[in-house]
Write a structure and sequence with these properties.
This protein is 45% helix and 10% strand. The chain is α+β, with helices and mostly antiparallel strands.
């Protein structure tokens, strides 16, 4: 009877140990998975936010905002700073030296992160958020806040940067920042993000389907009409190159007419040369 009792105790102990090991293993996998957020994943999150912002502006009839890699770098820095101090004010030297955040310290504004010799601006604004792992959820937070939505839909803004920081030791983990500016400067590397990059295969192939047809004419005509009406109009650099049917460096109604004549068989080749 005593041996049986000891056997039962040993079995119970083994089962308890196995259960504990399984529990610890689950925690380790969870923590490991949480820490394995790559830079590529963060870059995808920023691109999704860029798209959501411009798509919302387009729906409202507002001009899309150019993304600038330099501003994205500033936004990345600001997102990382908000993991320490969640505020529109940056950590001061005193805070950093002490290693303690003071939300009442408003000596260093967020805008000081921008080098105005690189990105001169007339106006700038910042949105910050934390706790949501997707662009869609974070964008919804901003959309439901009148102050943040006002920054996103400001008619005067021209350029932006988006940054995401991941802090695995923080309960909020994901920290988001979007920087908006108004400037007259054209940045060499500025771009408008697109969900599906259209790559034309030839002159006139604006929609990138390897065929020059009526669909391309419709895309070009709509672009020109919107541009002339002062409405949002966007074609990528490659699409603009394909749309320049005269190769004169300008996209006008004449290019649309040339494309139409090519589709109808009146012109035998594009680009058209007189």
């Amino acid at each position: 009877m005593l041996n049986m009792k000891r056997l039962i105790q040993r079995i119970a102990a083994i089962l308890s140990a196995v259960s504990l090991l399984c529990f610890v293993s689950d925690l380790t996998v969870s923590d490991s998975a949480a820490a394995d957020v790559s830079q590529d994943q963060l870059d995808t999150l920023t691109k999704n936010m860029e798209l959501l912002i411009n798509e919302a502006r387009t729906e409202l009839g507002l001009q899309p905002v150019y993304v600038v890699p330099y501003l994205c770098g500033v936004s990345k820095l600001r997102a990382e700073e908000t993991t320490f101090k969640f505020s529109h004010y940056r950590p001061s030297p005193a805070e950093l030296e002490a290693g303690v955040c003071d939300l009442n310290d408003t000596t260093v504004k967020f805008s000081t992160a921008i080098d105005r010799s690189i990105a001169p601006y007339y106006y700038c604004a910042e949105n910050i958020a934390a706790g949501k792992p997707t662009a869609e959820e974070t964008f919804s937070q901003w959309k439901n806040s009148s102050r943040h939505w006002k920054a996103i839909t400001a008619p005067n803004i021209t350029h932006m940067g988006v940054g995401v920081a991941y802090a695995p030791s923080s309960p909020l983990k994901y920290y988001w920042e979007t920087l908006f500016i108004q400037t007259d400067k054209t940045f060499d590397d500025q771009f408008l993000p697109v969900r599906n990059e259209m790559i034309p295969k030839a002159c006139g192939d604006i929609n990138g389907d390897s065929s020059v047809d009526t669909f391309d004419y419709v895309v070009l005509a709509e672009y020109i009409d919107n541009k002339n009406a002062g409405k949002p109009a966007y074609l990528s650099e490659l699409q603009l190159e394909a749309a320049d049917c005269f190769k004169d460096g300008a996209i006008t109604a004449a290019d649309a007419k040339a494309l139409q004549r090519y589709v109808l068989g009146e012109y035998k080749a594009l680009p058209y040369v007189f």
